[in-house]
Amino acid sequence: MSKKKKGETLETLNKGFKVPDTYVIIFFVVCFAALLTYLIPQGMYETQEVSYMIDGAESTRTVIKDNSFQYVLDANGEPLKKGVGLFEAGGGVGLLNYLFEGMVSGDKWGSAIGVIAIILVCGGAFGIIMRTGAVEAGIMGMIRKGNGKEKFLLPVLFIFFSLGGAIWGMGEESIPFAMLLVPMVIAMGYDAVTGVLITYVATQIGFGTSWMNPFSVAIAQGVAGVPVLSGATFRVVLWIIFTGAGMAMMLFHANKVKKNPLSSISYVSDAYFRNDLETNTPIDKTEKFKTGHTLVLLTMAAGIIWVIWGVLKEGYYIPEISTQFFIMGLVSGIIGVIFKLNGMKLNDIASSFKQGAADLVGAALIVGMAQGIMLVLGGSDPAAPTVLNTILHGISEAFVGVSGTFAAVLMYLFQAVFNFFVVSGSGQAAITMPIMAPLADLLDVTRQTAVLGFQLGDGLTNIIVPTSGCLMGALAVARIDWSQWIKFMWKYLGVLVIMSIATMIIASVIGF
Question: What average pLDDT does the segment 462-471 reach?
Fold first, then answer.
């Protein structure tokens, strides 16, 4: 596809070859996963409970026993290949059951149904907030008074979200923030890609280089028998380097789009936000804030502070965060009605909530579809007979006999690929580290380095794998098609992969 040039219009950008829709891509991935179930036999592991200390308290985790892998055998004593059917009744998983079963899988604490819920609730809440016109009025006021200095906000936000990923494992929480910040950066002259970079992508860079994330590094170290939260100095330096590199690439892209908006891969889809901004921004863009506008913005600021406090101090997660944003939207709507912002009436609270949620139904469907891929492969339970367990075992067996440094790199690459199937950091740690830790001992790789390979492989590839409900949710609220995202992100990820490989080599050489 040729590069976009100055002078091209929205119509010309829509012509020519079109990449498949995200729904189409996911469907073909599901079909491929179904094919694997006919080619690869099922396998399973035995599991056990292990204990480890974190912050002075004992925690337990279910992990795989060493050397416990076994094939599931058929009546003839041969490894069982049990392909999924086209359709399964009674709540089973067949090829064409993937959408419904994917959407209702999990619980309110995580993918898929929890992520779907937070997307719809927060979408409705932001629908109310946007209906008041306060955000648009605030953006225009900031742009007028900033005189170009608003660009300094981008690196500040990138660092903030990267810290969020590093300190408390921020991921799903970035989705509602993307809903807020994507329209803001577009109003500044950037694009939706920039909005996703400073929110979701930043959290995953922090996640992958964290020195204290309780949902990944702490669990991985505990399972691997490494002192929990050890090696922090190396990881803090790593976080600084990777965050700096990610921020530099983000600013390079943002400045490029600022100079030539047509260079953005999301220029066409960003029209939704540009039109919305033009529609909801007061005609007289020089008018001062009304008292109601100020109160809505203060409500949003207080709500965001409440969310941050809840996550850091009280361990709030999807259920609490969803309710916090709902309250933020409800209070903003009441203010809008009292002060008649944009002519709001009581029924407008309900209608704007419905519209905001309706705008993100597509995002909710994508999250369910992505989870359906895992279900077709049998799920991520190591103690259950699945094709995924056999794939895991086969890859780990291929490592035996290679040099220490090469093995360290392979461990990282393995975790990066395996993250396509299990995007949960804690889940991937519980499944892979009981295998990688003793394997590291055999290959002259320290267990700390094996944990590092898990971190980098798990966190950084989250910015591209379509099986990540968080990624697909963030892209959906930004109205970016995954196929378009890949066109931009492969170069960005390529830099991070090269940096990660260099990190694994250094870690192996110094005996980290």
Answer: 86
Reported as type and span, the H/E element at residue 235 is helix 232-259
Nearest to 483 by CA among 275, 274, 175, 268: 268
Counting every residue written for the chain, the total comes to 512
Separation of alpha carbons 166 and 207, rounded Å: 5
pTM over 0.90: no
The pair of three-digit structure tokens given for residue 252, joined into one six-digit string: 């390079």
- Reference 496, options 473, 469, 463, 471; nearest CA is 463
Cβ atoms of residues 307 and 173 within 8 Å: yes
What Å distances lie between residue 438 and 64, 244, 431, 443, CA to CA?
Answer: 12, 34, 13, 9
Rounded CA-CA distance 11/32 in Å is: 35
| β-strands 43-44, 70-71 pairing | antiparallel
Report the C-alpha gap between 151 and 510 in whole angstroms.
Answer: 39
Q: How far apart are CA 252 and CA 155, in angstroms?
A: 11
pLDDT at 7: 43
Other CB atoms within a 10 A radius of the CB of residue 237 amount to 12
| Other CB atoms within 10 Å distance of the CB of residue 160 | 17
> In which element (H, E) is residue 410 found?
helix 404-418
Residue 103, token pair as written in the block: 């959407």
Q: Report yes or no: 396 and 137 within 8 Å, Cβ to Cβ.
A: no
Residue of 449, 370, 402, 451 lying closest to 30 (CA atoms): 370
Q: Identify whether the C-beta of residue 187 lies closer than 8 Å to the C-beta of residue 136.
A: yes
